[in-house]
Design brief:
It contains four helices and four strands. A four-stranded antiparallel sheet has the order 1-2-3-4. The radius of gyration is 18 Å and the shape is elongated. Strand 2 and strand 3 form a beta hairpin. The chain is α+β, with helices and mostly antiparallel strands and 127 residues long. Among the domains are: 37 residues; 39 residues. It binds zinc ion. The site of zinc ion has 7 residues, from loops.
């Protein structure tokens, strides 16, 4: 029988939560990015992201895909230089999304502007 050993009180001696990561986590989380995406960004597991978010009491955000009929799912779609990576809570004007520009900048855009082709970069390019 193969022997599998689990540490009795494993808490991790090398905390991955260095100050800069916590800072980045807070920023990305408040931007409405998913735990999975943040995990990739920080090079950590999704579970550790969720655990940290819980410990920091950062609260829930609205990245869960919206099932309402008028919420068009734009996740991972590309519009010009922008790739949509997360849903942002609606404002009074409708659906908003977080998109990553080819230049690396994260920006919040309205779904209607994406559809109309009015927004196709973070502002670093014209058109
Ligand atoms: Zn850009």
């Amino acid at each position: 029988m193969p022997q599998v050993k689990f540490p009795k009180h494993f808490k991790g001696t090398n905390t991955p939560w260095l100050a800069y990561r916590v800072k980045r986590l807070k920023r990305l989380w408040s931007a409405g990015l998913s735990a999975g995406y943040i995990a990739d960004e920080l090079g950590l597991t999704r579970n550790s992201i969720i655990g940290k978010v819980t410990r920091l009491k950062l609260g829930d955000h609205k990245t869960k895909r919206d099932k309402r009929a008028n919420a068009v799912d734009l996740l991972e779609k590309r519009f010009g230089h922008l790739v949509v990576i997360a849903r942002v809570p609606n404002d009074s004007h409708g659906t908003r999304w977080t998109a990553r520009c080819d230049c690396g900048t994260l920006t919040t855009v309205r779904g209607s502007n994406l559809h109309a082709g009015r927004t196709s970069s973070c502002g670093c390019r014209r058109g």
